[in-house]
Amino acid sequence: MILDEPTGETYDVLIIGSGPAGLTTAKIYAEKVPSARVLIIESGAPRVLHHAAGLSKVVASGDLASDYYPAHAQRTLGGTSTVWTGLCTEMEKRAFLAGEWPIQYKELASKYQEAALILDLPSEVYEKPSVLLPGSTHILYKPFYRRATRFAKKYRSWLETSPQVDLLPGYTVVGLGVGGRLVETVRVEPTAGGGANSASLKAMRVVLACGGIGNPRLLLLSEIGAKTPVGRYFMDHPHMYQAFLLSVDRDALVQVSGPPQRGRIDAFQLTSEYCVEHGLLSSSFQFMKGLAERLEMLRGRRRVTRFGQVILRSEMKASPNNRVTLSNDRRDALGQPMAAIHLDFDRGQIRREFDQFSRVLVRSGLGRTSELRGGIQLTGGGHLMGTTRMGTSPTDSVVNADCRLWDLDNAYVAGSSVFPASGSANPTISLVALAVRLGGHLAETA
Ligand SMILES: Cc1cc2nc3c(=O)[nH]c(=O)nc-3n(C[C@H](O)[C@H](O)[C@H](O)COP(=O)(O)OP(=O)(O)OC[C@H]3O[C@@H](n4cnc5c(N)ncnc54)[C@H](O)[C@@H]3O)c2cc1C
Fold first, then answer.
1. How far apart are the CA of 133 and the centre of ligand 1, in A?
2. Nearest to 257 by CA among 168, 144, 358, 158
3. Global pTM value
């Protein structure tokens, strides 16, 4: 049910944030443990978008400006899924093959089917995520599927009627109280301020699902994980728009893609194995609308190609210098230090990946790229990742392979902040898959 104010109940699991990560974790756990009681605390109000937008303000330096971030951290029921585009494709294996994740790729891949159901995606997204372009050993056809599922709309009536799950909207978690190795209290303030209904809530286990900036910020505010790299290794996906044209052999493309399909967007990339062998990160070249056909000479053969502009979406190397900390002098409406963010893109790396993809494509005789204008103009994707990364030791990670904080026995993190490496795929299907895995883990260990 939807609560007006906090109650004194001690819940089995308390989840902070009602975006895709928080709602998925709650749903999977509640389904598997029918006797469980779950509380979801949501900073925003259920219906009013931007109600609590001021609480996402940050101070930024580097390649992305301060006003970029709040738009990508919506404070409302359903979180940022209220505005997202809904492009989904599986994360590549590259970073798993390179040993950058502490889990096997199959642990993530085995959850994509459930994630696809939650995101209303077609089965192709997990049954046939990618296929080699005929005639090439290194170039994959790896399309995106687009369904902009709004989590608030999809799960609202479940939240209103579930006997197991309570939602407390309009309350912001401002700190976690720790005793020994346990989170003992969760301090909340009414989002609109005033403090009249401030409360300290209790739960057996706590899940942070506040987004890629909200998660490290709450840990820093609560002085948790001081010996781990909380907030470091922040990543986004550098995007380049309107910079490149791509031509691809039409027959090869049609052989793998079949007829056009509504909601499917063609994209190409180098195989993970090739990237690992050549020290490259993952990059995806996604066709934009407005494709044309023309005759071209490719390696001495006349071919009909499909050509048009592409979006280059790239992985960025995880660097400890890109980080979320707390501002020394700027505070939000609840009196809490704002997040201070620094992020630099590596233009040289993106250039190398573009050049290598272009070379392999030309060598295959299946297509070519060309540049529309000089210079690399980058923007982010609103994909906030890496700030509470998963790993094998507290010296270089914040959570373990179960997404549990190293310092605590009853606190977990859900969302793309646990990605130790991001791949080039948009993150939501993968963070939902990890939330399915976390919900299952919480149930198995209940
Ligand atoms: C314009 C746009 C387009 C996008 N397009 C795509 C796309 O095509 N494909 C894709 O994969 N991804 C896309 N994304 C990213 C996608 O929206 C996010 O990956 C996804 O929403 C993250 O889910 P989350 O649950 O981790 O975080 P969020 O959705 O951000 O949810 C976090 C929740 O936590 C709440 N919260 C935060 N702090 C507190 C606190 N202290 N107390 C209580 N509650 C709190 C917030 O109010 C919010 O409801 C897009 C994003 C934007 C902005």
1. 34
2. 144
3. 0.97
